[in-house]
Amino acid sequence: MNATGSMGLSAAVRPCCRLLVVFQKCPCPPSFSPSLFPKCPHHRLGDLRVLAAGRHRHPSLVRAAVAPAPSPDAAPALRRLSTSVNPVPGDKAFDRIYVQGGLAAVKPLVIETKPEGDVKEPAPEAPVEAPPEAAPVREESEFEKEAWRLLKRAVVNYCGNPVGTVAADDPGAGPLNYDQVFIRDFVPSALAFLLKGESEIVKNFLLHTLQLQSWEKTVDCYSPGQGLMPASFKVRTLPMDGSNEAYEEVLDPDFGESAIGRVAPVDSGLWWIILLRAYGKITGDYGLQERVDVQTGIKLILNLCLSDGFDMFPSLLVTDGSCMIDRRMGIHGHPLEIQALFYSALRCSREMITVNDGTKNLLRAINNRLSALSFHIREYYWVDMKKINEIYRYKTEEYSQDATNKFNIYPEQIPSWLVHWIPEKGGYFIGNLQPAHMDFRFFSLGNLWAIVSSLSTPRHAEGILNLIEDKWDDLVGNMPLKICYPALEFEEWRIITGSDPKNTPWSYHNGGSWPTLLWQFTLACIKMGRPELARKAIAVAEKRLSNDKWPEYYDTRTGRFIGKQARLYQTWTVSGYLASKMFLENPEMSSILTCEEDLELLEGCACSLTKSAKSARKKCSRSAAKSQVLV
Ligand code: GLC
């Protein structure tokens, strides 16, 4: 958990007036008010002292322009190779989403109809045919019944409608911010509800978080990008302006400005896109993703991810703690989890973006980035016995485009645990890659999502599952699944975590076991035709989850103890378990989240666009890219 609550900070979080128009869908009477939050008035029965003065965020911190549009003339010719969303010379600029000065945080008015002339590209994958209701009905086990009771108890309402689930409902522990709806935590809840045929909560969640996206957000006089999605939000009940009797509900998002360490929730927007596609595929309600405001939301997220910076790699550059691991853990730079979610979100966006003149360049930028990203990760993040042996024999300080050791990795970096741990069969994607730095830790979510999204080749995907099977005691043990392996210990723990007492070795993010990861594991197993592996992991979890009161995480090398500071009745533990069971029962439903290998993407590898005969370029040619799949 990573927040201290949002009171007392001078962060400006407010919708602009036009944004309130969007809330006319709220079932409560629309209120046009200069308040800080989207609101829905009602009369509250309970005690409101807790919502004392001082909560209102500073309204005067209005942000300036998000990003001025660069002049197309100023762009050098080489920009044609860029995978960014910035327009290239001579190209008609895609539907611009830059917000110019004065209009910051103003989202286009919502018009729910599709503009005429827009053509929707047919989704590359067939829509999911079988509605969940059609699946053979099986009597739910007692575990499942309990899990459903808990999941329903976790539902949060806003203006009388369900909009999400709290992170945890542990009566024995202070809420901290576990009483908020976390974007990433809600994903397995959303899937469980969708698979059960209950889609309203998911639709509400998608639309309300979309509104939060464009709020002004300020952290110490600095405004993060407009497309940023919050890490979490809370429904608060506040006295209505000038009234002692009337109260209203408001949504109060946390974009990281209250989070411990002020971490940026980079994964939120990526999960939002992934969930949006899943919602469309399972409900057939493609109208939602076609809405103008939803299309704008997708573009705002992509704009943040695709804009040019100082990056030398196609992978997304982020600060530490910008995903599920939301504390300092040495995952700044280009962590695998973010890359896998980024790839997946790009694939999903490509299916959902309405094709028209205004989006052509964006779609091209997406394709270019997908090609470059998959090449980069497949080529440089993958390790197995053979690759480790190559690194072991690397020459260093090579200066040329032909360098074999491109990132100047000193072989001494290969950790001693890995020398013994890497199996003969199988392999995995390393946790991070930077100049002269490979983080060899195994991170479960990144590896599993690489399989689900087809960022990995089928051969890699098999290799990862083989490794998990081979290292079952280390990665599953008494509770699936280790968040990462191995733990940072001794000096490494002191230096890399900053002596974090929550992330001690084999606890929490530092080698703890997180049952919520079961659902991603199940999806990966189903995709690779190995459901029995998922069943085995679920059976391990079933032995303990209910007795242990559905904890957030487990500690020790093999996951024997309930985590030192773990919350009980953690919602994504509950919903992750339910989603896993339901996917196993209806494996065809996993296609709402998976993507298949796209050979055209490999052919489009940005490097192959150049006609240069230099051998370094040839290495990244069409055939090299294809060989990643076929080998
Ligand atoms: C912890 C986890 C984070 C999760 C949050 C709410 O901070 O690290 O991933 O979203 O708790 O459950």
UniProtKB/TrEMBL annotation:
Enzymatic class: hydrolase
Xref: Gene3D superfamilies: 1.50.10.10
UniProt region (Disordered), positions on chain: 116-139
Pfam families assigned: Glyco_hydro_100 (PF12899)
EC number assigned by the record: 3.2.1.26
InterPro entries: 6-hairpin_glycosidase_sf, 6hp_glycosidase-like_sf, Glyco_hydro_100
Catalytic activity from the UniProt record: Hydrolysis of terminal non-reducing beta-D-fructofuranoside residues in beta-D-fructofuranosides
Domain of life the protein comes from: Eukaryota
GO cellular component: mitochondrion
Hydrolase is among the record's keywords: yes
Purpose of the protein: Invertase that cleaves sucrose into glucose and fructose.
Protein name: Alkaline/neutral invertase
Organism for this UniProt entry: Phoenix dactylifera
